[in-house]
Every structure is written in structure tokens, then in C-alpha cells.
Specification:
Order of helices and strands: HHHHHHHHHHH
Shape: globular
Structural class: mainly alpha
Helix content: 40-55%
Oligomer: single chain
Number of helices: 11
Largest sheet: none
């Protein structure tokens, strides 16, 4: 089965994520793609049991989707897994040609994409430490667009487009860095033992007081937070 989701499939998955049971806590599909990108190019491979809960609940990893029946559950879980596999395949087969969703369709926002990427980094923060220490500027586009503190600086400076342009080049650098680290693994040593430990830290991104994803955006636009500054850097105020 082809991994890449069609536009209709993306919208179908988004409609489920916008359901009353999940809309306050879940990722959007573009946030999910950024999240999967961090998992795909990062220091270690995580099992779905580690990364799946945070799709439904970005803050605590505890909320569970309420499927109508087994058929709906199977269909939607297949969409999530295909979305993940599609991102992984892109970075394996044609990393230089990778185009994030926000670059393909204006309905998806670069800020939400970066928020997902940073969640993926934070999920395995201990494993990302060597890069965070040695090359902190490579994470700058994602922190400036995908974290509360970073967005505040970006809004103040009015330089969102500059950071958006740096996202894909930073992805290429980060991918190359971790590929090199894996190549240095001692011969015969189990890769997973070399690359990371067994515990996944609890993600925590927000340094500022949490704004509900359906609350009015603090920027004063009158739009919901998740449809404004948290999702679209193109509309930063």
C-alpha cells in the first residue's frame, strides 16, 4: 500500500482529530508530520507504543480516542501509521526532495509543524543531547516557530519567513548528523543499545502558561489558538 496520504485522507484524519473528545488535546495532521519527522531523522527508533499516545494527547499522553467501532478504529489507525511510514520513507528514499505539508498547502501551518517536531525531540530529549549541545542553532527554526517562548520572539521580531526558510535545510543537517553517529557505532554492537536508552522522557514543551487549543488566541486575532499562532506562522501577529 502506498504510504503517502491523499488530501482526502488527510482531511478525514483531521476531522477525527477535531472530534469533541480529542480537539482540546490532539495533534493536527501537520503537527503529526513534524512529530514524525523528528522520529524519522532522530537518534533512535521508537516503538509505536511510545509515540502513539502523544498524538491523542500532546500534554499528558493519556487521552484515548473514542472510536465508534472496530472498523473505524482500524481505518483511522491505518491512516496514522501510513502517515508515519510516509514520512520515514521520504527521509530514506528522497530526503533532499522532502516537502513539508505547510509548503504544499496553505491550510497547514509551519508553526504547528515545528511544534510537532519539538514534541518529537522532547520525547527523546536525553538522546538528542549531543546535538543540542554541539549544534544548537540547527534546532533554532523549530524552537522559534514551535514553542511558546520562541513564538513570542518571532512575533516581536517579525521574522517568521526567515525561520520557515531554514526548516528544511536544518532537517537535512540533523539527519546527516545522526546518520554519522550511527555509522560510528562499534562493529558488532547492538545499534539500539549504542544509540539510546530504554526510557522515553515525558514531553513538556510549554514554558509559558498553557493556552487551551480552543481558547481565543492571545494575539487578539479573535481566532481559536490552534487555528492561529499555534498553527500558522504565516499568520503570526
Amino acid at each position: 500500500m502506498h504510504d503517502k496520504l491523499t488530501d482526502d485522507e488527510l482531511l478525514s484524519l483531521q476531522a477525527f482529530l477535531d472530534s469533541p473528545e480529542l480537539e482540546e488535546t490532539s495533534m493536527d495532521v501537520v503537527t503529526m508530520e513534524g512529530y514524525f519527522a523528528a522520529l524519522a531523522i532522530g537518534p533512535r527508533t521508537m516503538m509505536p507504543s511510545q509515540w502513539m499516545p502523544w498524538i491523542w494527547d500532546m500534554d499528558e499522553g493519556e487521552a484515548q480516542p473514542a472510536f465508534v467501532d472496530a472498523e473505524e478504529a482500524n481505518a483511522l489507525m491505518q491512516l496514522v501509521v501510513r502517515h508515519y511510514n510516509g514520512v520515514v520513507r521520504d527521509f530514506i528514499e528522497a530526503p533532499a526532495a522532502f516537502r513539508p505539508l505547510y509548503d504544499q498547502d496553505p491550510r497547514w501551518g509551519a508553526s504547528a509543524w515545528c511544534e510537532g517536531f519539538m514534541l518529537g525531540v522532547t520525547l527523546g530529549k536525553e538522546d538528542w543531547t549531543p546535538l543540542l549541545v554541539s549544534e544548537p542553532t540547527w534546532l533554532a527554526p523549530f524552537t522559534r516557530l514551535g514553542t511558546a517562548d520562541g513564538l513570542a520572539f518571532t512575533q516581536k521580531d517579525g521574522d517568521a519567513e526567515t525561520w520557515i526558510e531554514q526548516i528544511v535545510p536544518s532537517l537535512q543537517r540533523i539527519r546527516a548528523y545522526w546518520l554519522e553517529q550511527r555509522a560510528r557505532a562499534p562493529e558488532g554492537q547492538v545499534e539500539d543499545d549504542f544509540r539510546f536508552g530504554t526510557d522515553a522522557p515525558m514531553p513538556h514543551l510549554r514554558a509559558a502558561p498553557k493556552v487551551g487549543r480552543n481558547d481565543p488566541c492571545p494575539c487578539g486575532s479573535g481566532r481559536k489558538f490552534k487555528k492561529c499562532c499555534v498553527t500558522a506562522a504565516q499568520t503570526l501577529h
